[in-house]
Amino acid sequence: MIGYAATFLIIAIIAGVLGFTGIAGVAVEIAWITFVIGLILAVVFMVLGRRPRI
């Protein structure tokens, strides 16, 4: 997920430099959403992985 966020952020930067502000805005929004989802999943898996085995 974090890799996708970085990819979309790079796409947004390139699109912004080239003047495609609409595409850059959409790419930034997608990057932000994928980053937040990836961060939430990382925390959830970290918490679930620390539970003792029964």
UniProtKB/TrEMBL annotation:
It comes from Desulfococcus multivorans DSM 2059. The keyword Transmembrane helix applies. It holds the Pfam family DUF1328. It comes from the Bacteria. HAMAP family: UPF0391 (MF_01361). The chain crosses the membrane at residues 7-24, 30-48. InterPro entries: DUF1328. GO terms for cellular component: plasma membrane. This is UPF0391 membrane protein ytjA. Keywords: Cell membrane, Membrane, Transmembrane, Transmembrane helix.
